[in-house]
Amino acid sequence: MSDTDLFAAATDDTHAQMMQATYEALRKHGYSELTIQRIGDEFPKSKSLIYQHYDSKDELLVAFLEYLLEQFEADLPIGDDFENAKEHLEMLIEYALPNEFGDDHLDFARAVEALRGQAPHDEAYQEQFAATDAFYRRLTADVIRVGIEQGVFRDVDPEQTAAFIVASVHGARNQRVTADTAAPVRAARRELEQYIRTRLVADDQ
Amino acid sequence: MSDTDLFAAATDDTHAQMMQATYEALRKHGYSELTIQRIGDEFPKSKSLIYQHYDSKDELLVAFLEYLLEQFEADLPIGDDFENAKEHLEMLIEYALPNEFGDDHLDFARAVEALRGQAPHDEAYQEQFAATDAFYRRLTADVIRVGIEQGVFRDVDPEQTAAFIVASVHGARNQRVTADTAAPVRAARRELEQYIRTRLVADDQ
């Protein structure tokens, strides 16, 4: 996901501009140094507009998380464009866990995981992340179900398989930005591809 | 890991007492509300002792992460007690990702993942988490290597397999406490067990 995709609406939409300002401030300062003042510094309109919409930094950040989830859903490769469920699954994984993270994607992932670190002690954050995780899991399970119908995948449990794939993608992605390490993440992804080939893809494919 | 294991030395050791105080404060207040004052409130000796040892909250928290890693290493099921590498691997997974998280373990995992959320913007944290991840990965790869020698496991790539197992365990654990959800985590673990059975364990075992 590039910045351009994320804030495509930001040129003329106040809400999208506020979200982009939050993103830029989070990227520059990290969560613990983030203030509404610093978000305001990135916002092209009057700072008072931010205070009109949000009572606190936390309220603004929960709205920001909601926005990210909406963009994530809108941007994910979904739909009937995929003739083959295996290719669709590979696209879903590549989207969340690319073999090479570009700078934009890395900045985005850092911002998301920094917010995620607040979730253990904040229910509003927890709900947002639970919704994101559930959405990505549901989509993955749907693709697996289609693949079973197509005869591309074996008759596995779609929910259980999706839960495992999403957990491993999430874990590798989180490690990528919290331990700033690339090689083990690439190794994990290579093994994820082996897992899909040996456990999920039907023998005659 | 129970609190008792973590702070076994805390009854008479100032450093361990400081670490326990940090843990209790982090558990009660979360990262973003954590202050040296609040850590001092949990410390049985004079607060000035904390300031004598650490110039800032961040310095104290990096020392706390180091302490956690030491305890994690000391507490992990390592060594020659395991005749069977498959059982040893299962123990390693159960240790980090139990089927049922007890309250203590959940509190501990919440505290760790809250600190982890700071790592994208803090190199000292990143280094600590990179070291923890690398240690757990190395240990897992060693167990896989022993299993291959024993004929219990197939001739897989130990590092690649370990990277994948550790990423999926980490992802499920992180989801457990940041989305406060148990069912998908149990599903992911069940599928991890299937993966180990079908891809790792040798056919004649």
Mean pLDDT of chain A: 89
Backbone CA Rg of chain A: 19 Å
User: What is the CATH fold-level name of the largest domain in chain A?
Assistant: Tetracycline Repressor, domain 2
The parts of chain A where pLDDT drops under 50 for at least 5 residues are: none
Globular, elongated, flat, extended or rod-shaped: what is the shape of chain A? elongated
Largest interface: which pair? Answer: A-B, 58 and 58 residues
Tell me the structural class of chain A: mainly alpha
Straight-line N-to-C gap of chain A:
31 Å
Question: What is the CATH architecture descriptor of the largest domain in chain A?
Answer: Orthogonal Bundle
Sheet-strand content of chain A, in percent, reads under 5%
Q: Write down the domain tally of chain A.
A: 2
Q: What fraction, in percent, of the residue positions of chain A are helical?
A: over 70%
Number of DSSP helical runs of chain A: 10
According to CATH, the homologous superfamily of the largest domain in chain A is Tetracycline Repressor, domain 2
Q: What is the CATH class of the largest domain in chain A?
A: Mainly Alpha
Keywords (chains A, B): DNA-binding, Repressor, Transcription, Transcription regulation
GO molecular function, one term (chains A, B): DNA binding
Organism (chains A, B): Halopiger aswanensis
Protein name (chains A, B): TetR family transcriptional regulator
What layout of secondary structure does this protein have?
The structure is a homodimer of 205-residue chains.
Chain A: H1 3-6, H2 14-29, H3 36-42, H4 48-53, H5 57-75, H6 85-96, H7 103-116, H8 123-150, H9 158-178, H10 183-200
